[in-house]
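Saturday, quiet lab. Running sequence design on the structure tokens for the scaffold JK sent over.
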């Protein structure tokens, strides 16, 4: 099993171009499935998969486990390790509107941070950076000074190892400049802890939770929502977020609907009749 797992890990990295976090999730799911089985992993059928998935009540968790299993057996079939045809359909998940914050709520939180030290300046810069760029928390963790190119951020550690350029609003750029100047060290990472070591994902979560009561991912949703509400093209938002598929970005079209109705009511001659 260990050799097969390592081969699958290499396949996910090279053939699929997945990020390290995604690869870890796939491997963990397969190892969990293997531990559940009372037979060899290459001897399973659909009933074994269904029996394993029955323990998961949350549809998102179930679908993630299933996606890992389907990917694994597709890999086995493609490389002729086994000819097991699983490919069970995913469970339908309700299209929930992503949680997001209004821009003024974010700006109020930023203004509430009294800059007594460079760590306070870091927190202000971090909140503005996340909202102004829409980057994933993993991308913020790995962002370095060299990635700041004028009014642009070069995201070099995107999902699937993809690179992209994202413009940075002047207010966020200014906050970064003040913070980095006051920090006064040569650590290449933009965001660091009090020891001047790269800030962790958990630390970023604690900072956004402290000031806004939400996870960093909500700021990413807020970024996308602000763009959609402002009239940005969906494909532009897709590129800025680094989504590989437009289907992923289309969850934000739900945000457009109430604003489209307001536009009709305000501007169409039949809107208020």
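Result came back. Writing it out in full:
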């Amino acid at each position: 099993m260990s050799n097969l797992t390592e081969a699958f890990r290499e396949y996910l990295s090279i053939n699929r171009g997945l990020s390290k976090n995604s690869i870890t999730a796939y491997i963990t799911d397969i190892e969990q499935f293997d531990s559940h089985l009372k037979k060899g992993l290459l001897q399973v059928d659909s009933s074994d998969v269904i029996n394993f998935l029955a323990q998961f009540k949350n549809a998102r968790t179930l679908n993630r486990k299933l996606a890992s299993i389907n990917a694994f057996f597709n890999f086995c079939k493609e490389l002729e390790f086994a000819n097991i045809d699983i490919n069970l359909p995913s469970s339908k998940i309700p299209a929930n509107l992503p949680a997001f914050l209004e821009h003024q709520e974010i700006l109020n939180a930023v203004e509430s941070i009294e800059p007594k030290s460079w760590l306070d300046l870091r927190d202000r810069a971090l909140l503005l950076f996340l909202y102004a760029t829409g980057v994933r928390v993993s991308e913020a963790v790995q962002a370095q000074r060299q990635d700041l190119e004028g009014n642009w951020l070069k995201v070099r550690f995107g999902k699937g190892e993809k690179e992209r350029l994202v413009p940075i609003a002047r207010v966020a750029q200014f906050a970064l400049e003040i913070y980095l100047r006051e920090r006064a060290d040569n650590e290449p990472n933009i965001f660091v802890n009090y020891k001047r070591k790269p800030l962790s994902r958990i630390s970023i979560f604690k900072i956004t939770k402290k000031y806004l009561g939400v996870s960093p991912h909500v700021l990413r949703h807020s970024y996308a929502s602000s763009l959609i509400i402002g009239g940005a093209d969906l494909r532009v938002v897709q590129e800025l977020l680094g989504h590989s598929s437009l289907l992923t970005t289309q969850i934000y079209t739900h945000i457009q609907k109430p604003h489209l109705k307001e536009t009709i009511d305000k501007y169409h001659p039949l809107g208020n009749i």
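Notes for JK: Residues 103-262 form a domain with the hpI Integrase; Chain A fold (CATH 1.10.443.10). The longest strand covers residues 152-155. Ask whether to fix the surface positions before the next round.
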